[in-house]
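Example for tutorial group B:
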């Protein structure tokens, strides 16, 4: 894998059993993503967007073909190795936020660092830096029930970014947000991409998200239909 490529898939296939039949979610997908990209997978429901994210995020494995991510072949990793790759190098943002309700914003952001056994003093600085990136340092002691939807998603971004991963995967991150909060979240992600160099890969059908992308890959029935560079129509670009 080239030093510039964070992700490279070759003839990637994923087939799921569905009763007595099978469903092909990805059908011989060849894609590469370079460091620093701000790219999105678009397409209708069932086109393979989330399946692709799950495989490159080491949450799932291919049926056949290859998925190279950060120099590792996903199909060769043990469960322990896949978990280590996620913990160290990949951040995830989901549409449902997935915050732990009994923990404060600070404690939710802290969770990935506990898994990495980061020392306490260093951990505190990293957490406050991450909350500051998303403009929520003053809400560190608030629990999810005390936060708006937009604030909860910003905490989820801080949690995903606190370890400064080279790769961040976002699955429909604006689906539960209004337009104002969606743009705030997207501008935050764009800023982190620009300032920290983190590569972002979205799965989305939200036109607001697409307006920020610098590359759009359209999936149809598990295949790449179009792969095109974009000039962002919203936000600042890079």
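The residue assignment follows.
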């Amino acid at each position: 894998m080239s030093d510039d490529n964070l992700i490279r898939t070759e003839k990637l296939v994923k087939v799921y059993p569905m009763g007595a039949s099978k469903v092909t979610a990805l059908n011989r997908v060849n894609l590469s993503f370079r460091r620093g990209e701000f790219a999105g997978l678009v397409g209708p429901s069932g086109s393979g967007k989330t399946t692709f994210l799950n495989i490159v995020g080491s949450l799932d494995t291919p049926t056949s073909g290859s998925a190279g991510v950060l120099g590792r072949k996903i199909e060769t990793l043990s469960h322990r190795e896949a978990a280590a790759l996620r913990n160290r190098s990949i951040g995830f943002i989901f549409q449902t936020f997935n915050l732990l309700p009994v923990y404060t914003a600070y404690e939710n952001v802290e969770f990935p660092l506990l898994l990495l056994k980061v020392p306490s003093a260093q951990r505190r600085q990293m957490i406050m830096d991450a909350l500051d990136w998303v403009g929520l340092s003053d809400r560190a002691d608030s629990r999810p029930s005390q936060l708006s939807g937009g604030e909860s998603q910003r905490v989820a971004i801080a949690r995903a970014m606190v370890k400064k991963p080279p790769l961040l995967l976002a699955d429909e991150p604006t689906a539960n947000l209004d337009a104002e909060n969606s743009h705030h979240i997207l501008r935050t992600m764009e800023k982190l991409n620009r300032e920290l160099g983190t590569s972002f890969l979205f799965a989305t059908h939200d036109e607001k998200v697409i307006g920020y992308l610098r590359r759009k890959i359209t999936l149809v029935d598990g295949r790449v239909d179009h792969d095109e560079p974009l000039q962002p129509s919203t936000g600042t670009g890079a």
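The domain at 36-61+79-229 is CATH 3.40.50.300 (Rossmann fold). Compare this with the pattern of hydrophobic and polar residues in the output above.
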